[in-house]
Amino acid sequence: MLEFVVGSAHAVSATAAVVAVRAARIFVECMVMFLSICIVADRRY
C-alpha cells in the first residue's frame, strides 16, 4: 500500500510539474504578444 501511495504521489507531482510548465509557456507567450502589441501601438501613435 505504501508503494502505491508513493507512486501516486510521484505521478501527481510529475503531472503538476507538466501543468506548471505548460502554464508558464502560455503565460510567456501572452506576455510577448501583449508587449509586441504595446510596441506596435506606441509606434503608430
Textual characterization of the structure:
The chain is mainly alpha-helical and 45 residues long. It has one domain (1-45). The protein has one helix and no strands. The protein has one helix at 2-44. The model has no long low-confidence stretch (mean pLDDT 90).
What keyword list fits this structure?
single chain, 1 helix, 45 residues
Would you kindly provide a brief summary of this structure?
With 45 residues, the chain is an all-alpha fold. Helices cover 96% and strands 0% of the residues. The chain has one helix spanning 2-44.
- Counted by DSSP, the helix tally is 1
Q: What's the shape?
A: rod-shaped
**β-sheet strand percentage:** under 5%
The major sheet is characterized as: none
Percent range for helical residues? over 70%
Oligomer: single chain
Unreliable stretches: none
Rounded to an integer, what's the Rg over CA atoms? 19 Å
The succession of helices and strands, N to C, reads H
Structural class: mainly alpha
Count of individual beta strands: 0
How far do the termini sit from each other?
66 Å
The overall number of domains is: 1
Q: If you average the pLDDT, what whole number results?
A: 90
Give the secondary structure arrangement, pairings included.
Elements (H helix, E strand, L loop, with lengths): L1 H43 L1
